Structure formats: C-alpha cells, structure tokens
Amino acid sequence: MQRVEHVMGFPVSLRIDDAGDYKEAADAVFAWLREVDERFSPFRPGSEVSRLDRGELAGSEVSQDLAEVLALCEEYRVATGGAFDVRLPGRGLDPCAVVKGWSVQRAAEGLAAAGARRFVLNAGGDVVASGGPWRVGVRHPEHADRLCTVLELTDGAVATSARYERGDHIVDGRTGRPATGLLSLTVVASSLTEADSVATAAFAMGAEGVGWAAARPGCEVFAVDAGRQVLRTAGFPVAGEPSAAA
Amino acid sequence: MKRAIPVVALSIAGLIPVWRYEPSIGGTTSATAEPAPAPSATSTTASGTSSGTVVKGTTVNTDKGPVQVQVTFSADKISAVTMLQQPNHPQTAAAVPVLVSETLKAQSADIDTVSGATITSDAYKESLQAAIDAKG
User: Fold this and answer.
1) What does the alpha-carbon distance between residue B47 and residue B70 come to, in Å, rounded to a whole number?
2) Three-class DSSP labels, chain B
C-alpha cells in the first residue's frame, strides 16, 4: 500500500510492501504526526512548546514526551559546543529539528509493532526504512531532479540537511549567523532521531561538522562542501559497491 | 604545505574526545596492548607522490593507546585520512572516522525513495519523491 499526506507543512509518503491490511497502522502514523504538530509546533500558540516558551507551563509540568525532546536538544547542544541550539537569542524555543526525527522514528516503530516488516516512511526527505534492501537516492544540492549518490539500506534511517529548500534556516548557535560552510550533509544511522539531529547539528557547525558527525558512533556521512567537493565516510553504504570493511 | 600540519593536529584533537568520552565496554584486555612509543613533536613528515601529498601526524597518546593519523592531500584538498596507529580496542575501531574525498556527481538512477532537505508541501509536486509516489 502507498499513501501520501501533508503534515507539519511537509509531505509524508508511506509505502508498505507486506501482504495484509495495514490501513489502521497507516492511519495511526498520520494521526500521531498530526498530534505531534499540535503539541510541539512553535508556530501554534496553543502548543505545549509555545506555552512553555511563554512561561505558562513550568519546566516541571511538561509532558514526558516533551521532556524527552528537550533532553535530546540539550544533548546535541553540548555535543556541538553550542552550534546546535534550539533556544537562540531573540527567537522563541524551536525544537523542530529534533521533533521531526524523533516523531517519525516513533511512527516507524509503531508500524513495526503492528507487524509491518517491509516498509519505507519518508517525511519531507527524512527516511526510515525497514526490511530492505531499499535504494535511497540523495538529492543533488544544485539540481532538484538529480541525485548526488544512491545508497542501499536494509534497516535504518537517512536524513539530509541543506539550504536549497528553505534557505538559510539553520543557524550556527555559536555565531548567530546562518550556517553556510556546506551545501548538503546526509547522515545514515540506525534511528531517524539520531540521523536527523546529527545532520542538522553538523550542518550548523559547517565544514567541521563533517568530521564531528563521522565520529558519532553508528553514523555514516556524505557531505558536499561549499567548494562542491564530496567528503564521505568509508562506510557510507553507497549502492552497487561492495561495502568497505570497517 | 603550510596548511597541512594544523589540519593533522585538528584531526587528532578531534579524535581524542571520542576515546575519552565513551565508557569502556571492552574491558582492559586489549586497551593497552603495548607500551606507546614516545611522542615526538618533530615526527610530522610529508612526502609528495604522484597521487598527492601525504602527511603523517605526530603520535598522540590517549588513555586507550597511541593514535597517529595520515592525511593525503590532492592540491589543497584532503583526499584521504587514514589511521596509522590506533588502539586495539573494539569501540575505537568503530569510532574512528575515515573520510574519503570524491568529485560531486549528478546522476539519475532507479530508486525507491529520496532523502533531501525538508521539502515544503508546495514544492512536493515538482519533486522526485512525488514522481516516485505517483508511479506507485
């Protein structure tokens, strides 16, 4: 089965190849993502995130889910020396970068719990794949209709950060300026929570983010720098090539 | 070559926290397999080859053992980073980032899905993913 819906302002494509009826499981995926949008969007005045930001909600009153998200945000802020920061000066609390990967990963776990084995869930360019092999193309940073690499994934997640879709929206928290050191950075990891957060955090760091992301245990990286040079980890699972021995 | 040595130093500096930060899960049997050679501030060497310039970094002693990297430059760009010495320890083998440099290519291929920067719902209809979804 195949389904596309628009949630949180981006398209979410779900494909399940297992035989059987997964309509309910698919419904649950989109219902969960709409719930996440209601609860965590900084653009909705009534969301838990907005209420916390305005001080209407004490830190001790946040839900367990939001506490988990904020703990992840803090972990990545510390790990990047402040380059990744969801509380930038002069701006409201914006944990979107972590919420997206975290919520889509949980949606995929719900599918697996419902019995789905072979599926791929793509949330606006962030991918969770199960029961592959799946061939995942990485969009070329300068040509929307081309790819810069293709990777093969059995079970895992892929996330890409870049400026070509939403402009200079990723800010280096250390300088307060848009991150411009890279054209695109893709991370493969076992969970989308890690892949998406690491991709955004590394992109915020700029060129030095490539080595930083590569050093994260379990992360494989494919980056295009401002000089259009590709820098990737030896273990990045490029399709059609034997995987390098680690 | 003026730029090379700081890069090597940074590479090593970037690796050290990886060993320090991770809790040891491999026990002590392999972490200190052999005594570290004495570090030398003057052991950085460079040599030119047909495929680029190769620079060996100094050996740095970490609490998991000695670490030494080698960086290959093509013109001013890093084309490869390899470990000459690394501690004989399972978690470090997984944590050492070895980066490969390549030329950016634009290709088309048969794929199941596309990863890219978060696309807006407005931009979706023009996207590769929309074409894949439409194909079913």
Assistant:
1) 11
2) CCCHHHHHHHHHHHHHHHHHHCCCCCCCCCCCCCCCCCCCCCCCEEEEECCEEEEECCCEEECCEEEEEEEEEECCEEEEEEEEECCCCHHHHHHCCCEEEEECCCECCCCCEEECCCCCHHHHCCCHHHHHHHHC
Q: Is A186 left (phi over 0), alpha (psi -120 to 50) or beta?
A: beta
Question: Which of A:203-242 have CB within 8 Å of B?
Answer: 210-212, 214-215, 217-218, 221, 224, 227-234, 239
Which residues in chain B have their CB less than 8 angstroms from residue A150's CB? 107, 109, 111
Residue A4 contacts B where some CB pair is shorter than 8 Å? yes
Which residues of chain B are within 8 Å of residue A166 when distances are taken between CB atoms? 117-118, 120
A234 vs B contacts (CB less than 8 Å): 98-100
In eight-state DSSP terms, residue A219 is -
A137 and B93 within 8 Å at the Cβ level: the answer is: no
Of B113, B117, B123, the CB nearest to A127: B113
Tokens 């994260």 found at: A216
How many residue contacts between A and B have a Cβ separation below 8 Å?
171
Distant-in-sequence, close-in-space partners of A204: CB < 8 Å, separation ≥ 6? A80, A83, A84, A170, A171, A172, A173, A179
ipTM here: 0.92
Global pTM value: 0.76
The DSSP H or E segment spanning A78 is: helix A64-79
Each residue's pLDDT tens digit, A178-233: 999 999 999 999 999 999 999 999 999 999 999 999 999 999 999 999 999 999 99
| Residue A162 Cα, gap to closest chain B Cα (Å) | 5
User: For strand A171-172 and strand A220-225, is the pairing parallel, antiparallel, or unpaired?
Assistant: unpaired
